[in-house]
Structures are given as C-alpha cells and as structure tokens.
Amino acid sequence: MSAQDLIKQQITENQVMLYMKGTPQFPQCGFSSKAVSILKACNIEFGSVNVLEHPEIRDGIKEFSNWPTIPQLYIQGNFIGGSDIMSEMYESGELQELIAELNHDI
Length: 106
What we know:
Elements: H1 3-13, E1 16-20, H2 30-41, E2 47-50, H3 55-65, E3 72-75, E4 78-81, H4 83-92, H5 94-105
Parallel strand pairs: 1-2
Antiparallel strand pairs: 1-3, 3-4
C-alpha cells in the first residue's frame, strides 16, 4: 500500500486524525504538544501517527495536504491545519463547533 493510500485509509477510519512528532502521551516537539493539548481540551478521542517512526508518512502527508509542516489535523477526512491554525480555531470556538458536529453525527 502506498503512503498516499495509507493516509487516505487513516483519515477515513478516524474522524479526528493527528499526524505528529511523537505520541499523544509523549509529544516530541512543542507544536505537536500544543496540538495534543488542544484536542484533549476539546475532550475528543483522536487517532494519531508518529511521523518520526514512519518516514514514508512524514513525507507523504506533506504531499497529501500540500502543507509543509507537522503536526497536521484532519477532521472527517478534511485537512484542518497545523498547531497555529488549531490554536486560532480553538480560541474562536470554531474547533469546538466542528467537534460538537461530530458528536451529533455519531
């Protein structure tokens, strides 16, 4: 399976998917740590991939989204952004609204 196909599968199987450096329990960069904190504050379960352990995903996700940095957040298969965009959306309440919509769809 190609990296692109694997990414498509992951973002389809997980309503909320975070590509990050490290794991939610042990983020390995400040931006990934910030992204995990925001998702935990939203009280939502999410899938994650440690791109440090999967170089093909690390390169592939940047091509997939046409976004050069990690972390990257996907909700319902849609690319949301990195930690700065997540912070802005969280502060405005927009991220919580997106997540509330997920809970209604279940």
